[in-house]
Write a structure and sequence with these properties.
Layout (H helix, E strand, L loop, with lengths): L1 E6 L3 H16 L3 E2 L8 E6 L4 H17 L3 E6 L1 H4 L10 E5 L2 H7 L22 E5 L1 E2 L10 H5 L3 E2 L2 H11 L5 E5 L14 H8 L7 E4 L4 H4 L3 H7 L8 E3 L7 H7 L5 H14 L4 E8 L6 H14 L3 E6 L16 H24 L5 E9 L4 E4 L5 E4 L8 E9 L4 E5 L3
Parallel strand pairs: 1-2, 1-3, 3-4, 4-5, 6-9, 9-10, 11-12, 12-13, 16-18
Antiparallel strand pairs: 7-8, 14-15, 14-17, 15-16, 17-18
Helix pairs in contact: 7-9, 12-13
Length: 413
């Protein structure tokens, strides 16, 4: 059977898509490059935000017209809002479990599930995406992903370490991913810091990127985490979503921390690692958000000087508590989003300009259209147009800064 596979969403979803392809290849399915060439099409969906959900619906409709194959809809959309999936005799709603897909395709491994050690076909051979857990401990009032991913299920330390040891024979960069990496291990009597200690016993010159973490969980083992975070093989990069600078809104969101607690954690991190790259997420136009609430978010972002801010205009997600609250008009959301986008671009540019003139050791881990892309020790993106080896380290001088990336020139040894 010929199968076409495409996937969307977070790093965990990318990993799931890689593992779906790996499982198909193991079972001798032919993976094709175009939907029109396939007997079956698998789309691994994301539905974390309303615009993403809309994109998924559009894409499923496009696939219906592009191919005569069966279209197997997999992933988060099937759990979050299955009613929106187009009704068509060729569209099959699969679910979120790999075993459901395996049974539908009549694979030998009927009881297979996602795990760190399941074989995959990587989209980027230099980067190994390693899931460390599924689900989370949160109950955010706006989030529908919990319906798809469920409660926290951490993978065993030994299983993760074996996977990384194996992957580092071919790859140089490891992404540790989960809905919330900071709560890893809370259900099995360990934590992320302990996991990192075990991983870092693996010898070699490689890099680890730690995925998104919530501060209410991170602060429970912050001292231990900061000690292990010193290792030069860990990118000095953290993704800590704040979502709002208003305590009133944070309480409505059920985020389990205050704005001051968030800032305190960030300041402790920056005191020890002043050049860390901080990424955060903000939701604008959350139900009942006032202009004063919004101003508090602006003030917080100025204070923490995040290099990257993912700004989302609040969109109703089905079956969530926030969907029942008093909604903000779209025009207000757009105005606030524009203001934040402008501010965050300025803040990012200011931080990036500090890098100009420096000599940096970067790992060339991605390919652009007419360039190679590397990452500094603090995970800033560097564009290199000269010849250098993919998936190897290179020395560059940072010659120019842009708001969201740097430009580097190779420095000959």
């Amino acid at each position: 059977m010929k199968v076409y596979v495409e996937g969307y969403g977070c790093a965990l979803n990318i990993s799931d898509t890689e593992k779906i392809i790996g499982l198909l290849k193991k079972n001798r399915f032919a993976i094709v490059d175009k939907p029109s060439e396939a007997d079956a099409v698998i789309i691994n969906t994301c539905a974390v935000k309303l615009p993403t959900e809309n994109r998924m619906i559009r894409r499923i409709r496009e696939l219906i017209s592009e191919t005569n194959a069966k279209i197997l809809v997999f992933g988060c959309l099937t759990a979050i809002n299955p009613e929106r999936i187009p009704k068509n005799r060729r569209v099959v709603v699969v679910g979120t479990k790999l075993s459901e897909l395996a049974k539908l395709l009549n694979l030998r491994e009927k009881n297979v599930e996602f795990s760190p050690e399941l074989e995959e076909v990587k989209f980027n051979p230099c980067i190994a995406i390693v899931p460390i857990a599924r689900g989370c401990l949160g109950n955010c009032s706006y989030c529908a992903v919990k319906f798809a991913r469920g409660k926290l299920q951490s993978y065993a330390v030994d299983s993760i370490v074996r996977k990384i040891r194996k992957e580092l024979k071919k790859s140089r960069e490891v992404w540790l991913t989960a809905e919330d990496t900071a709560c890893y291990g809370f259900d099995i009597g360990t934590n992320l810091a302990e996991l990192l200690k075990k991983i870092l016993k693996i010898k070699g010159d490689y890099r680890i990127r730690i995925g998104m973490m919530n501060v209410n969980n991170l602060k429970l083992f912050l001292d231990e985490f900061l000690d292990v975070f010193e290792d030069e093989r860990i990118y000095k990069f953290l993704h800590l979503p704040v979502q709002s600078g208003s305590n009133r809104i944070l309480k409505l969101m059920n985020r389990n921390y205050t704005a001051n607690e968030f800032v305190e954690v960030v300041e402790r991190i920056k005191k020890k690692f002043p050049e860390i790259t901080l990424s955060t997420d903000v939701i604008v136009g959350f139900p009942t958000e006032t202009e004063e609430d919004f101003k508090k978010t602006v003030a917080l972002l100025k204070k923490i000087r995040a290099t990257k801010v993912n700004i989302s205009r609040y969109g109703v997600r089905p079956n969530t508590e926030a969907a029942k609250m008093e909604q903000i008009i779209e025009r207000t959301k757009k105005e606030r989003s524009r203001k934040l986008t402008k501010l965050c671009r300025e803040l990012a540019f200011k931080e990036n300009k500090k890098m100009v003139g420096r000599i940096e050791k970067i790992l060339i881990s991605a390919k652009g259209r007419d360039c190679l892309i590397g990452r500094t020790k603090n995970y800033k993106q560097v564009i290199v147009k000269e010849n250098c080896k993919f998936c190897e380290f290179a020395k560059v001088k940072i010659v120019e800064a842009k708001p969201y990336y740097l430009i580097g020139k190779i420095v000959n040894e």
